[in-house]
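SEQUENCE-TO-STRUCTURE ENTRY
===========================
What this section holds: a protein sequence and its matching fold, both as plain text.
Tokens: labelled as protein backbone structure tokens, with as many entries as the chain has residues.
Question of interest: how does this chain fold, as expressed in backbone structure tokens?
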Amino acid sequence: MNPATALATVLVDELLRCGMTDAVLAPGSRSAPLALALHAADQAGRVRLHVRIDERSASFLGLGLAKRSGRPVALVCTSGTASANFHPAVIEAHESGVPLIVLTADRPPELRQTGANQTIDQVKLYGTAARWSTEIGVPENRPGMVAYWRSLVSRAWGLAQAPVPGPVHLNAAFREPLIPDGDETWCEPLDGDATGAWTKVRAATPGSVLHVPPTRRGVLVVGDGAVNVKRYVAAASMAGWPVLAEPNGNARYGDHALSSHHFLLGLPEFVEPHRPEVVVTLGKPGLSRPLLSLLRRAEEHIVLAPDLAHWPDPVRSATQVAQDVEIPVVSGDDAWLKSWRAADQAATAAVDAVLDAVPEVSEPRLARDLVSALPGGSLLFTAASMPIRDLDQVMRPRRGIRIMANRGASGIDGLVSSAMGAALAHSGRSYALLGDLAFLHDQNGLILGPEDRRPDLAIVVVNNQGGGIFSLLPQAALPGPFERVFGTPQQVDLEAVAAAHRIPYRRLDAAADLPKVIAGEGLRIVEARTDRDANAVLHAEMRKAAHRAVRELLSAH
């Protein structure tokens, strides 16, 4: 099956699974895959297809259908000015709150701005009149496309209705061939969810609560930006679920919180017998690839989203999205939780042994010990790259601190200033854990006017003289260009930087000296020098030790 046919087949099928009953088509060449998929669905009695030769008339026909039925109607046209002729109806739908799914066919990127026939700029063509607008991207014959396409349609269907009904725009780029080629094979099944939409969006109505099916084999995942954390952690505990919390989710506390889920979920021997029946996600997870793999394999993945116009679903696995979720209390055998906790304890002990065996300063041990050493009521602001990942892998559960990071876009910029701003707003002691490049990227954040307030903030800088995270990525296998274009070595004297800004400076030379070195008040800088190559070796040793310990535990049972 060619990619154009596969994409169109899935888009139409998912719209039907979401509940679409009517579609309006204006004919054209580039939209042929969608036209043929709609015609097939019409012949099978799955949809009422309406065809009009003029796009303006077609779009207003769809507007009338949707306005009277209250259900989204799909509008389909070819590329070029055909899509522009939908614009008046899209504006009317926006102003009057009518749900429409506008599907515009488009040329692939290589034909745009080249003078190719019937090609205009269709990206976000309808501007602010569309509730949501996205480029689907040229379809490719590779695994993962079906989940992407179906979750995209489910999101569009939900956004067309909630929180305020209106039009959404999906721009679909098709490469030739545009008609079926007689080959029905594809790299993965094109099928959707037999029970309906790929992702079911619970309507935002007062008192609307999604009740999770009672099960002991559940998992609560907490990522960045999570809300109502205490409520859901308590509910998960009552249900006997383990809590897999990223540090900045601020839910890694209590008996159900795990420390080493990153290592556990990277071990197939553990993952297979510990596949949850349901996963509930708060916030936006994204620090650990093994954790994302767990979400991808979940039988039921429920996403709690306070704003139904946006919800995090990085691996396109969400089956339901709701603003309020009820996790029921389940009594009975607690073997599920005990098994997770026993494996976590074994992995954590193994990782601790590796870290404690090295008296010199290491990045993961610094992260672990810093969290343990912070006084109650402290704030810890971390860089969004390696420091937050070190915390994710080695931070032990504890109460009484708040961890923050700029993980919205996960950028390197402005972290010194962000940490200062957070410290100025915080009522207790404040600390920051930054890499050298993140620190240097925002040196200007250290410039304070003589009459400006100075935060009580200890900035701990891990100085490995470059981009440490790249030593843990595949780029490290390229010894020729690696150091210059990925390692990006620097030789800035951080003590001189501190002196230039008249900020107190201390250096951490031994891991055991951390509590003494970070002590003090006011704005101050602590430098911890490490080696990138040694750090990569240490991370490999941590993973091996954790996996060895868990394998031994599993074999003993």
User: Anything to note?
Assistant: The chain is about 35% helix and 15% strand. The CA atoms of residues 431 and 458 lie 5 Å apart.
